[in-house]
């Protein structure tokens, strides 16, 4: 292993530009919504609209109907994966990434053991599978069904165990732009058909209680983890081992990085932390211009590194949250510079109403006249393409 003192240093701006390039945020990409969703390893999707706004910030010519069509044709799905949060994934990634993070889902069950005394988790998983595959069910319905067999146990613990043990997807119309619907769940295999059966690791990997992922030789589990490391670096690199562990919600990934070290570039940041990268990964000049970008709440750009200073200036740490509420964020010169909200939009994309609503932008510090003009221009694009028509961009406060 090379001494860290001999490794080339990537400063904060260099990391910023490299990450923005991987995230398709320096220049909007000529890429399909499906290809972009796969390149980004999924779109954070606790709420319905954020995946659409994530793609709008990254893709040329994107309209909400494109992703909505993928949802309705079951080419992308909404399910719990990284960090125990809902993501929108291509079917391929749903089938491969969910097993990768299964040890973390097993660990999550441990927090609810007091409410699962005497519960056979294999039996619970099978009972829940049969129930949701008969027809999509709400979480409340799953709880009620499981209480029939385990009436003395905690309802929430029973439903959490079912969610963790099974690869459950939220069925449409939930997640479709311009439509509404309850969260109803079925298994990934039932929703996408052939190829999905058995994709979820119902019993979890041995050792999952420690929350780790172990390699196991040249193929199988190890090759899957190694592929995920390479893809993570392609979307979020250059990055440290802890960065990827933060993104995935896993531990003990050092072994995979060490296996791959001979084929990776290795750097260090200004604090001496070792960073790995793909040899051909884009690392643009640190002074390359970065246009303003409006990102939705929970955008993975802001959540997928242990050290987020490559995007969030230290003095602004925590400023994109109020209590438990995450705000939509504005990037200026590649870094977090403000918050935004869209009120009164008609929705439905370019085919929506004529009034795109009001886009309010709150800046954390002063911005030049030229900078404000760029923000307004980008905001007007957002209003026209995502708000449903022409609207107003104004500067003010969005926090109570």
Summed up:
It is built from 14 helices and 14 strands.
Task: Spell out the key features of this protein.
14 helices, 400 residues, alpha+beta
Task: Please give a structural write-up.
- By secondary structure, this protein is of the alpha+beta class.
- Helix content is 36%, strand content 16%.
- It contains 14 helices and 14 strands.
- It has helices at residues 12-22, 33-39, 50-58, 64-72, 91-100, 102-110, 121-134, 139-149, 155-165, 188-192, 221-236, 241-248, 254-260, 369-387; strands at 43-44, 76-80, 86-90, 168-170, 185-187, 265-268, 274-277, 293-295, 321-322, 325-326, 328-332, 335-343, 355-363, 390-395.
- A 5-stranded antiparallel beta sheet has the order 1-3-2-4-5. A 5-stranded mixed beta sheet has the order 8-11-12-13-14.
- α6 (102-110) runs antiparallel to α9 (155-165) and α8 (139-149) packs across α9.
Helix content: 25-40%
Please summarize the sheet with the most strands.
Answer: 5 strands, antiparallel
Query: End-to-end distance, in Å?
Result: 51 Å
**What is the strand tally?**
14
- Low-confidence stretches are 195-220, 347-354
Spell the H/E element sequence.
HHEHHEEHHHHHEEHHHHEEEEEEEEHE
The overall pLDDT average reads: 90
Shape: globular
Radius of gyration of CA atoms, rounded to a whole number: 22 Å
Question: How would the blueprint of this fold be written?
Answer:
Layout: H1 12-22, H2 33-39, E1 43-44, H3 50-58, H4 64-72, E2 76-80, E3 86-90, H5 91-100, H6 102-110, H7 121-134, H8 139-149, H9 155-165, E4 168-170, E5 185-187, H10 188-192, H11 221-236, H12 241-248, H13 254-260, E6 265-268, E7 274-277, E8 293-295, E9 321-322, E10 325-326, E11 328-332, E12 335-343, E13 355-363, H14 369-387, E14 390-395
Parallel strand pairs: 13-14
Antiparallel strand pairs: 1-3, 2-3, 2-4, 4-5, 6-7, 8-11, 9-10, 11-12, 12-13
Helix pairs in contact: 6-9, 7-9, 8-9, 11-13
């Amino acid at each position: 292993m090379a001494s860290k003192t001999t490794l080339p240093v990537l400063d904060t701006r260099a990391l910023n530009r490299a990450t923005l390039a991987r995230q398709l945020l320096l220049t909007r990409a000529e890429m399909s919504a499906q290809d972009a969703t796969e390149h980004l390893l999924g779109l954070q999707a606790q709420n319905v609209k954020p995946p659409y706004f994530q793609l709008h910030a990254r893709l040329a010519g994107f309209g909400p109907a494109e992703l909505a069509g993928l949802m309705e044709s079951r080419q992308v799905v909404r399910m719990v994966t990284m960090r125990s949060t809902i993501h929108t994934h291509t079917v391929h990634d749903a089938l491969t990434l969910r097993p990768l993070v299964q040890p973390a889902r097993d660990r999550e069950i441990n927090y609810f053991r007091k409410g699962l005394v005497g519960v056979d988790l294999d039996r619970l998983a099978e009972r829940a599978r049969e129930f949701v595959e008969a027809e999509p069910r709400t979480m409340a319905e799953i709880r009620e069904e499981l209480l029939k067999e385990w009436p003395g146990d905690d309802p929430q613990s029973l439903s959490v165990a079912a969610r963790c043990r099974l690869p459950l997807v939220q069925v449409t119309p939930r997640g479709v732009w311009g439509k509404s619907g309850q969260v109803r769940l079925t298994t990934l295999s039932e929703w996408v058909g052939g190829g999905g059966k058995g994709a979820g690791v119902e019993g979890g990997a041995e050792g999952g209680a420690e929350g780790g992922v172990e390699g196991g030789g040249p193929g199988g589990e190890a090759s899957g983890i190694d592929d995920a490391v390479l893809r993570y670096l392609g979307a979020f690199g250059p990055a440290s081992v802890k960065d990827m562990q933060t993104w995935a919600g896993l531990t003990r990934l050092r072994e995979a990085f060490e296996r791959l070290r001979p084929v990776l570039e290795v750097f260090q940041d200004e604090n001496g932390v070792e960073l790995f990268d793909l040899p051909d990964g884009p690392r643009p000049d640190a002074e390359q211009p970065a246009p303003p970008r409006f990102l939705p709440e929970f955008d993975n750009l802001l959540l997928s590194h242990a050290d987020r200073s490559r995007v969030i200036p230290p003095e602004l740490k925590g400023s994109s949250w109020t209590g438990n509420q995450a705000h939509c964020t504005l990037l200026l010169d590649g870094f977090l510079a403000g918050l935004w909200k869209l009120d009164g939009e008609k929705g439905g994309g370019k085919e929506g109403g004529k009034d795109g609503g009001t886009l309010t932008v709150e800046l954390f510090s002063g911005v030049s006249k030229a900078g404000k003009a760029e923000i307004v221009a980008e905001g007007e694009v957002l209003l026209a393409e995502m708000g449903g028509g022409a609207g107003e961009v104004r500067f003010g406060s969005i926090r109570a």
